[in-house]
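PROTEIN FOLDING TASK:
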Amino acid sequence: MTLPRPPRDDVLIAAAGLAGGLLLWGLGLTSQTRAPLTASWLVLVPLTVTAALELVRRTMPRAALVIGTVAIVADQFTYGSLATVLMFADLVYAAVVYGPPASARRIPVTTAMITIGVTIGSLAWIREPVALLIGVVTALVSFFPAVTGAIVRNHRQAADAARLRAEQTALLAEMDRVQAVTAERARMARELHDMVANHLSAIAIHSTAALSLNTPKTSLDALGVIRENSVEGLAEMRRLIGLLRDSGGQDGPAAAPTLAGLDALVRQAGANGSAAGLAFVLTDEREPGAALPAPVELAAYRIVQESLTNALKHADEGLVTVALTHTQDAVTVQVTSPFGRGPGPRAPGSGAGLVGMRERIALLGGEFEAGPADGPPGGPAKIWRVRAVLPVAEDDKEPSA
């Protein structure tokens, strides 16, 4: 197995410790005046071992501490070197900082017990105050480096945790931003589709009729409808642009349409659908003066508007009905039209209308269904029915004027 290359700092520590130990040995400076082993060169053995262990203090911290402990014990049988002692203290520090969490917890406790044991043993053996100095040196070499390593490790872990929280916060903020942008783009797409599709569908139907029939009266009527829808569509676009710019002007158009404008919307649909043999009728069973939250009013209005647009595009000739009912908890909107395609001119659909209506209802937590159904007695055999239930919470209700 190939050992990883030691970091540059560890190489410098090892080289400095070895050089310092050799200098002290060359000058004859030792940490003890008496030793069981009198050969002076034996001091270099623990010195060389601890210097070599400094190279693996990060990659193999536990093994380095175990071997270093053996080396420092062996150093006590020689005249000793201060450089060996200092490098051993660094190995204790590195074992706590770079070792596994279990070692980081056990080493300070173990060194504390060793310090206490050495101090008590020295007092029992020497029976002089100088024995306390041995305990202090032991603490300086083992316990204090371990405590320092634990403090540094805790600070690093706290910094890593803070950095991780900051990264998570930034990630969540970015996700919120993306979701907000996506939701706003979807809302703008729904508004733009619902506002413009109705007018452009009428323009397409009547321009097709004028080109197909090519009679002066048909062309004149078609031009009138086209102009009316063009002007109204332009006004709607200006209103949307004003909302996007957040002008907030008091003289501009209203911020959002309300159900009070359904009569005009149905009348306009009747004018637009006359060429296709469609008639429109509105049945509003709401209580007079009943006020609804703005989001509910806007959603109900847009659902009726889109349903009428779809009727202009796809319905067979006949009667299109719009019905509104209001209970204490919800507003129900239902639009029915003859199912099928009549012989008159039609405008192509994009398929986004039903998607937009479902999204509006989902945002309010309501119910939505759209599809073919059996027609009423005496009417067409099949109808296309759009039904939406918009919940109205008690706290959301606006006071009536």
